[in-house]
């Protein structure tokens, strides 16, 4: 009588081959997920930066001369950052920025540099496990940008006019 089943060695060989294929595919999928998260963070930064011209236009039309107003900070000519909490309270953002990798929320700022010729408004997103600073590539080194933010950019301590 002839047995037409597989031997233990043949089954083990198939399992090992499948394991190798899954290891390669799993690594590729995880890498692609990180790239997707980084791209999403870049889009969020651009969205925050795109708020800048509208905020400037609205704040300049309101015309507040308070010492802590947006226009006062802007007219001083020094870079400053507006936190996402301030943007939320003024109605420019609907809520906290969600981490694209799914781990909670991120800190976000709109950096305003009135003296800049090329990027007067720049978005900045700081997520616990994902760094997005508008740089190209799959990995980000945000050291220079953090130093710029920490050393050269003051906090906007005033209130934006309500955009609601």
From TrEMBL:
Pfam families: N_methyl. Gene3D superfamilies: Glycoprotein, Type 4 Pilin. InterPro entries: N_methyl_site, Pilin-like. GO terms for cellular component: cell surface. GO terms for biological process: establishment of competence for transformation. The chain crosses the membrane at residues 6-30. The keyword Membrane applies. The keyword Transmembrane applies. It is found in: Cell surface. Keywords: Competence, Membrane, Transmembrane, Transmembrane helix. This is Type II secretion system protein. It comes from Candidatus Aphodocola excrementigallinarum.
């Amino acid at each position: 009588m002839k047995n037409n089943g597989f031997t233990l060695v043949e089954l083990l060989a198939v399992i090992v081959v499948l394991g190798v294929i899954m290891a390669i595919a799993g690594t590729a999928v995880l890498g692609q997920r990180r790239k997707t998260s980084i791209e999403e963070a870049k889009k969020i930064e651009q969205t925050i930066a795109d708020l800048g011209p509208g905020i400037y236009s609205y704040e300049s039309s309101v015309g507040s001369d308070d010492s802590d107003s947006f226009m006062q900070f802007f007219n001083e000519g020094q870079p400053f950052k507006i936190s996402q909490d301030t943007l939320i309270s003024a109605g420019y953002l609907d809520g906290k920025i969600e981490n694209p990798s799914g781990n909670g929320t991120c800190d976000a700022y709109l950096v305003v540099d009135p003296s800049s010729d090329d990027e007067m408004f720049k978005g900045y997103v700081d997520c616990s496990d994902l760094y997005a600073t508008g740089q190209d590539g799959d990995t980000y080194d945000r050291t220079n940008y953090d130093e710029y933010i920490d050393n050269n950019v003051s906090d906007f301590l005033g209130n934006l006019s309500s955009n609601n």
